[in-house]
Amino acid sequence: MTDLLVVVPTEREHAALTRASGAVVCGAGSAADASIAEILAAHRPSLVVLAGFAGALDPSLSPGTTILGRESTTPGGEPLAPDRTASKLIEAALHKYNRPFVRSRLLTVAGPVMRASEKRDLWNTHGAGGVDMETHAVAQACTAAGIPWVALRVVLDTAGQSMPKGITHWHGDGDDRGVAMAAIKRPQDWPGFVRLALQYPKARTALRRSVAIAVRALKAEVATTN
Amino acid sequence: MGIPASQAMTVSSYLLKQKVMRNQRYPLVLMLEPLWRCNLACVGCGKIQHSEEILGTYLSPAECWEAVEECGAPVVSIAGGEPLVHPQIDKIVAGMIERKKYVYLCTNAILLHRWLPKLTPSKYLSISVHMDGMREIHDRSVDREGVFDTACKAIREAKALGFRVSTNTTVFANSSPEDMRELFNFLMDDLKIDGMMVSPGYDYPKAPDQSVFLSRPQMIETFKAIMAFPERKNWRFFHTPMFLDFLQGKKAMQCTAWGNPTRTVMGWQKPCYLMNEGYAKSFNELMEDTEWERYGYGRDARCTNCMAHCGYEATAVSATIASPLEGVKAGMATLVGRSS
Questions:
Q1: Does position B339 have pLDDT exceeding 70, yes or no?
Q2: Alpha-carbon distance A122 to B216, whole Å?
Q3: Which range has the worst mean pLDDT, A66-80, A95-109, A166-180, B13-27?
Q4: Is residue A175 part of a domain?
Q5: B 167-226 residues with CB below 8 A of A?
Q6: A126/chain B closest Cα distance in angstroms
Q7: B217·A124 Cβ contact <8 A
Q8: Which pLDDT score is estimated for B335?
Q9: Torsion angle of alpha carbons B140, B146, B148, B153, nearest 10°?
Q10: Which residue in A10, A90, B86, B179 could disulfide with A214, CB within 3.0 to 4.6 Å?
């Protein structure tokens, strides 16, 4: 049995983390729905840390800000709460290392949110700091298996930022080529891609640091308890 | 008249100074509550549920001026309780005007007639009268018959004496957009007030009637309906166009809890005007020791149904200064006396 399991949606997020995190890739969007139960059965962790990028819905959040999930929800779904003790430990550790973070709701939707106006409406309706495509599926699977979970998401794109149209071709690992081809055909999307590319290193670094801090804090607690 | 041009200039230059100095957090409006005693018990109010001992405690004029100087905000909103119950309110206001602060003296106007001879009209002073609806709705909201008529009479008298008079309307579940339309037309066309402030009610857990509060989606729908009336172009709001867009769900905003710090008889209230998690001894302690990131929509369940101007107008003002287009819209609103 593994004590602590870090789960990330994509290889890109996996690559952002340190090797010590021992993260497992669950797939993006609906792929996570299908794989997460198997992953939990195979690893039998005592705690799951879901980590990855998110789009900001909270207009005060900038790229690289960490969102520690206060609740996971979906449009029309019942909210799920993460493990309180683990959340508090991570919160204290992020504070200690001065990582910019907020505790907020995370909203899970089926596909990328493309327009800033859609983000605004989701914010007004759900009050979630960030939007992603996997957190709720992982939270549901963990809850069903009786495994406590926490979610750490790092802001990649801001609330006021519309996505370049080519992003609609992205559904998970392996779609980068399709996105690139779509981008080549639409020069008007290039500024949007450049902006994302400039934001990416900040988000990547923040994800690596925040997850490392969280894992270290949780492992230290386990060691103390044992 | 809308907001005085000098006030707009003072606030703009204050904000630019904060930006230049790279201050991340700074106050915009000091919410001063020199007492919690009130001569009404409004159904949606959660401010006055204190012991008799606390209700009998008043800030002295010197304590009020000290708070103003400590905070440094260019605008002061004197609330409460009912400020006109304070026996030295005229002295408190005069001291603030001396310090060139733009003062909003909030009142239910029951005692306004008695105080008007002791107050002096000034570009620094706005008398802000609480008005939640026309006669039936307002009197029900404040839980006393006759208050609407008293307030209207006092407003006319204050206007005749040359005071700048605005109103502050809280929108509750039991007032329809049509009711608000009737009220705003009456305030602008009949009472000829200088401007209006409007805010959805905050669901105070201590408020006597919890059924009067709107949920956030309901607030947005209500304000969309209110702002869609054709007379809207004649209504003068003392708000930024961005805040009014926010109320209609057209702009996404996060609360700026530190924008309106609150000094009460117990100290500086943490973290904001509406929530109470204890008191700081000084303004600096409030600003430095409060974990501001913990509060706001999505972050704290108590903020879920809050769209109040004391949290979001500071966000709107700051965003307006940062955006040239919004700055021009706000400038036009100040010049012509209309917002968006």
A1: no
A2: 12
A3: A166-180
A4: no
A5: 216-217, 220
A6: 8
A7: yes
A8: 62
A9: 180
A10: A90
Nearest alpha-carbon partner for A218 in A154, A153, A150, A155: A150
Neighbours of B116 (CB within 10 A): 18
Number of structural domains found in chain A: 1
Is A35 a domain residue? yes
Residue A74 within a domain: yes
Give whole-number Cα distances, A32 to A40, A133, B28, B286, B295, in Å.
Answer: 12, 9, 46, 44, 31
> Is the peptide bond between B81 and the residue preceding it cis, with omega within 30 degrees of 0?
yes
- Judge whether residue A113 has pLDDT over 60: yes
Residue B337 is predicted with a pLDDT of: 57
Cα B275 to Cα B284: distance, rounded to the nearest angstrom: 19
With the CA atoms of B280, B308, B199 and B86 taken in that order, what torsion angle do they form, in degrees rounded to the nearest 10?
0
CATH number at residue A121: 3.40.50.1580
User: What's the pLDDT score for residue A223?
Assistant: 75
CATH number (domain holding residue B267): 3.20.20.70
In this structure, is residue A220 part of a structural domain?
yes
Q: Using an 8 Å CB-CB cutoff, list chain A residues near B251.
A: 120
- A172: closest CA among A115, A134, A122, A119? A134
Confidence band of B44 (pLDDT split at 50, 70, 90):
confident
Domain count of chain B? 1
pLDDT in tens, B51-94: 999 999 999 999 999 999 999 999 999 998 999 999 999 999 99
Number of Cβ pairs < 8 A linking chain A and chain B: 47
User: What is the reported pTM?
Assistant: 0.89
Rounded-to-5 percentages of helix, strand, coil across chain A: 50, 20, 30
B85: containing domain: 5-336
In chain B, residues with a C-beta closer than 8 Å to the C-beta of A99 are none
